[in-house]
Amino acid sequence: MTRNPAMDVRRWDEMYRSRDQVFSGDPNGVLVGETIDLPPGRALDAGCGEGADALWLARRGWQVTAVDVSETALRRAAAAATEVKDRVSWARADLITTPPPADAFDLVSIQYFPLRRRSGHAALRGLLDAVAPGGTLLFATHALSDLAPRQEEDFDPADYYQPDDIAELLDPTWNVLVKETRPRTAPAPAGTHHTHDTVLRALRLP
């Protein structure tokens, strides 16, 4: 099925409007575990949602660009960010169709972002190009073993990137530091049964 960007925006906005808080408000465990020792710099939070990851990074001194397609989610995130508002820039954009600036970020964090594999991998390459030399790419998603197709939602897990897919696209200017499946460190989102994450952490060489 052809992707309809406007329909995607409506779907995400409807999800956020359906509840006062969709997610836990805690930063993703993969982000915390893999970046806690990194020196603060410029970070891109792809698909920031209600902003827990962006706020955690900002409170640790990062300058964060937090991007999402949902205006509802961004308003909610900004309302929670009063003490670090000078360190987070909230931006409504579709990173599938609009790539971020190249070579701009010391960390590009892609946490459970619904990034489908497409011919030419344009959306993924845009995110890879956003990592500055010496910067880190951090990708995490649900393990395939925890996912099942849902025909009513046009969802097939095989359509979406896993760490192996991304690692195959990295050229010799990248050093893969982590590529593994691991147990989740936090409870699965309500209504789901996710028990494992797949994680890729790669360093773009200076």
From TrEMBL:
Say yes or no: keyword Methyltransferase present: yes
The UniProt keywords, alphabetically, are: Methyltransferase, S-adenosyl-L-methionine, Transferase
Q: Gene3D superfamilies from the xrefs?
A: Vaccinia Virus protein VP39 (3.40.50.150)
Spell out the molecular function terms from Gene Ontology.
methyltransferase activity
The lineage's top-level taxon is Bacteria
Against InterPro entries, the record matches this protein to:
Methyltransf_25 (IPR041698), SAM-dependent_MTases_sf (IPR029063)
Q: What GO terms describe the biological role, i.e. biological process, of this protein?
A: methylation
Keyword hit for Lipid metabolism: no
Task: Kindly list any coiled-coil regions of this protein.
Answer: none
Ranges for the Methyltransferase domain? Answer: 44-135
State what protein this is by name. Methyltransferase family protein
Which species is the source of this protein?
Actinoallomurus bryophytorum
Taxonomic lineage of this organism? Bacteria, Bacillati, Actinomycetota, Actinomycetes, Streptosporangiales
